[in-house]
Amino acid sequence: MKASITFGKVTNFLGLGFFSTLKNLFTGKLEKEDFKVLLRKTIVPLASIVLFIGLWHLGAKSLYNIEAKFKIEKALKDQGQTAADALKVCIASGESTCQPNTLPSPAQVWESYKSLLRDHHIISSDKAAFIEKTAVLNAKRIAAGKAAITYTGRPSFVDQIFRSLQTVFAGFLLALLIAVPLGIFIGLSPTLKSAFNWFIQIFKPVSPVVWYLLVFMIVKTLLIDSNEDSSFTISFISVGFCSMWATLVNTAMGVSTVDKDYINVAKVLKLGTFQKIFKVVLPSSLPLIFTGLKITLSVAWMVLIAIELLAQSPGLGLFVWEEFQNGANDSNAKIIVAMFVIGIIGFLLDRLMLTIQNWVSFDKTDAI
Amino acid sequence: MRTIIEQKIPKIITKSTPFPSNEVMLDLKNLKKVYPTPKGDYVVLEDLNLQIKKEEFVTIIGHSGCGKTTMLSMIAGLNPISGGNISVLGKHIRGPGPDRGVIFQSPSLMPWMTSLQNVLLGVNQVFPDATKSQRNTIAKYYLQKVGLEDSFHKKASELSQGMQQRVGIARAFAIKPKVLLLDEPFGMLDSLTRGELQDILIEIWNKEKITAVMITHDVDEAIFLADRVVMMTSGPRAKIGDILDINFERPRTRKSVLEHDDYYTYRKHLIDFLEH
Question: What sections of chain B are H helices per DSSP?
């Protein structure tokens, strides 16, 4: 009993409340009146997932047929009957060289997912072997004051995910460190507000691509003497600049609209500026600041893919781009795998922020 | 435990020197408030003169919108003065300060703080030289006085409206102001809670005797709490219409007040004024 309460609390807290109903179903503790809730919260979403996969499958199949028909007709027109027949046989046999290149089916995507995981296991065992092999040598090199030999092999899909997460968190941190303090100052001072307003209004809608180019121009010059690869620096700074606006605007708004009663209390008690900010203004604007941070994180994750692609910085964006350029038989399926991974991670990041928000915010009803 | 705390308190916080008892604590002279509007100036208050003696409890009644709250927030220093002046112990006030404690209409507690932290916010500010445990003792003493000894560590947002206003009372008394300003502090409460809080307020006040100015809409409340009831004329250009001395002995109880012969005379006087 106690375990189920905590389970329910945890899942509700994480915004995954439907799990607890699902769990009740399996443990046989389902009440009759719970059935409607179960239907709405569990069965309907599951059914819609099944429907989605079914439609996808049918759509992919018909696209596949259109593409195959076109290929065969083209072969017939260009090379004659024999070539067309040979192609027909080849397509039917499932031979990978002659498959029509179109939207992959759910099954193909699942296969690609498994192959990417296999690939990851191979690469990581390779990497582990390499590290083991070079351990002694590296110890000697370090003792001699030389740089250690590092693994320079191809990163696996999972490595790319972690690299992307690193970039997004670095960018998010940058956005937080710039936007929150700046937002507080802007919110506190009407003068600063009018000084910064045009700046915010003009730069907020600028596209991630342009931000990337701007950051590229500046960072390239600043790091002109460095031999290091600057693509990571450029991409995380661009991500930060693209995504900080929501936090900036929300923080400024939160700070400038603190309940007048609280401000009056601070005035009557003659709190100093520092105390006023940290004891009154900031706590009361936390819900809005967090709403801003939540938007910032999801925007950061969304623009990250485009920016990694432009910056040639390792990560999911580059993975997608390389697969697209690659044009191998399972490339399309890998792109769709990446799409799902991006979506799921985006969702989890959003939940993470919601959890932190629920945890720090005084107003438990405010978080959506 | 309770007695220990009660003995400790006065040593820490009674710093004040004795006064001659008729001294004027709060003095409003030719007070004026004007709001400029596109159609010309709107005069809320004009030629308002009022002197409040030390250890006096004054209630102010008048119709809604007559400028009572404007006047109180001017005394608190939260609203700029358009003309005339306000002085506390002969010194003109400049802006808000903890020498004039305010109990607001809405409890105005920081909802993310516990009741103790809310009281400490003021105490820390006013007694910077006291040790941490002394400040804690002061805050806890006043919270206990308003009957919240079990709720020191409850978040303000978890308390009922009435309990929140108790914290508001504790916070105001704990900073030991020279003048206590109360802006319809019980206006938002149901009548039962209202009565309880009036009793709590008068009980603490009897002990502390802090000069108090309180706005109210409630005629019975005005009589029960006050030494003088100030009646304000309706705005614009509101001023003091009449002042009624309430000569009940202190400490008073609700019962003794209600049974007193003069009670209905006072009550009639106030209602006649308001109905004109």
Answer: 2-13, 68-76, 115-126, 132-145, 161-174, 191-208, 219-225, 254-259, 263-275
Architecture of domain A157-360: Orthogonal Bundle (1.10)
Chain A touched by B162 (CB under 8 Å) = no
Cβ B142 vs Cβ B201: under 8 Å: no
Non-local CB neighbours of A299 within 8 Å, separated by 6+ positions: A242, A243, A246
ipTM of model:
0.84
The pTM of this model reads: 0.78
Digit-coded pLDDT (tens) for B31-83: 999 998 898 888 888 888 999 999 999 999 988 888 889 999 999 999 999 98
Give the pair of three-digit tokens for residue B222. 């005005």
- Give the chain A residue nearest B121 (alpha carbons): A269
Among B160, B115, B103, which Cα is nearest to B142's?
B115
d(CA A4, CA B258): 58
Q: Which parts of chain A fold into alpha helices (H)? A: 2-13, 18-26, 34-38, 44-79, 81-93, 106-143, 157-188, 190-203, 208-222, 231-256, 260-268, 273-275, 282-311, 316-326, 331-360
Distance between CA B134 and CA B138 in Å, rounded?
6
For residue B58, give the nearest of B237, B223, B233 by alpha carbon. B223
Distance CA B259, CA B261 (A): 6
**Triad A327, A329, A334: Cα angle to 5°:** 80
pLDDT in tens, A105-134: 999 899 999 999 998 999 888 888 888 888
Both structure tokens of A229: 């690869």
Kindly state whether B161 is in contact with chain A, defined as any CB-CB distance less than 8 angstroms: no
**Beta carbons of A183 and A256 less than 8 angstroms apart:** no
Are the Cβ atoms of B98 and A271 closer than 8 angstroms? no
Token pair for B6: 């009660």
Domain-wise residue ranges, chain A: 2-98, 104-154, 157-360
